[in-house]
Design brief:
Structural class: alpha/beta
Distance between the termini: 38 Å
Number of strands: 10
Bound molecules: adenosine-5'-diphosphate, magnesium ion
Largest sheet: 6 strands, mixed
Number of domains: 1
Shape: globular
CATH topology: Rossmann fold
CATH class: Alpha Beta
Order of helices and strands: EEEHEEHEHHHEHHEHEEH
Helix content: 25-40%
CATH architecture: 3-Layer(aba) Sandwich
Strand order of the largest sheet: 6-7-8-3-9-10
Strand content: 25-35%
Number of helices: 9
Length: 233
């Protein structure tokens, strides 16, 4: 459903991505791993139409989307949960969730559906987003992404700064979403979390794909080499 070919991206003179090829099948979870600065966020932003200076092909549901505006790409069914959550601090949980539906499409994801997925949010619906724990804020950010009723949900660094128990709570919803025919790209620095949840893994280093494969086909040594640039011992 997503086919990226020879994607390059630049910030001014600085080139961040160098010819990325990437495929995602419907109802699959792809984990994208790699060290800080590898280009993971730039890759997601490129798909979402948030990087003006880019080249290459991005086909989504058989349509070329690389020339479309960010708003239009949301309406085509691509939604992003950005790094750092980016909630509106003064708005309530419910108002933040509604923001997702303004931009998006009609469909299964309503406020009630998000509260059913993350029951903790229902009691807090009228509380300002800033009064929530980090994990609950991440749930709001994912809920907001779902409220646009995407076919593809891209989650950037969802587990950053959260405790293992909270990470587990959040990660358990991804297979539920996949079962509803959503496709997901999950950017993750924690390799075990990434391998545990995904159908397929891409590893980025210095703006290039250094490794890809199904988790059960990849060895620890291959992943370390692709992630850190180390030779296997
Ligand atoms: N707005 C920006 N302006 C200039 N350089 C940027 C900008 N955003 C990211 N970069 C650079 O692009 C490279 C890739 O960054 P990023 O995609 O954020 O990596 P990751 O998400 O894997 O940590 C890094 O070298 C980073 O410094
Ligand atoms: Mg990033």
């Amino acid at each position: 459903m997503l086919q990226v070919r020879n994607l390059v991206a630049r910030y001014g003179d600085f080139q961040a991505l160098f010819g990325i090829d990437f495929d995602l099948k419907q109802s699959n979870i792809v984990a994208l791993i790699g060290a800080n600065g590898a280009g993971k966020s730039t890759f997601l932003k490129s798909i979402a139409g948030q990087i003006p200076n880019k080249g290459g092909q991005i086909r989504f549901n058989s349509e070329e989307i690389s020339h479309l505006s960010a708003d239009r790409i949301v309406r085509e069914g691509v939604s992003m949960v950005p790094e750092g959550r980016r909630l509106f601090r003064s708005l309530s949980v419910e108002e933040n969730l509604r923001v997702g539906s303004f931009a998006g499409r009609a469909g299964r994801w309503t406020l009630d559906a998000v509260y059913a997925l993350f029951p903790q949010l229902k009691d807090k619906r009228h509380v300002p987003a800033t009064a929530l724990s980090g994990g609950q804020q991440q749930m709001v950010a994912i809920g907001r992404g779902l409220m646009s009723n995407p076919d593809l949900l891209m989650c950037d660094e969802v587990s950053l700064g959260l405790s293992p128990a909270v990470i587990k709570d959040i990660y358990k919803v991804f297979p539920q979403l996949r079962a509803e025919r959503l496709s997901l790209i999950v950017v993750e620095q924690d390799i075990d979390a990434a391998l545990g949840v995904s159908d397929y893994v891409y590893c980025f280093m210095h703006g290039k794909v250094t490794l890809h494969g199904a988790p059960n086909e990849l060895t620890r040594e291959q992943i370390s080499a692709a992630y850190f640039g180390l030779e296997a011992a």
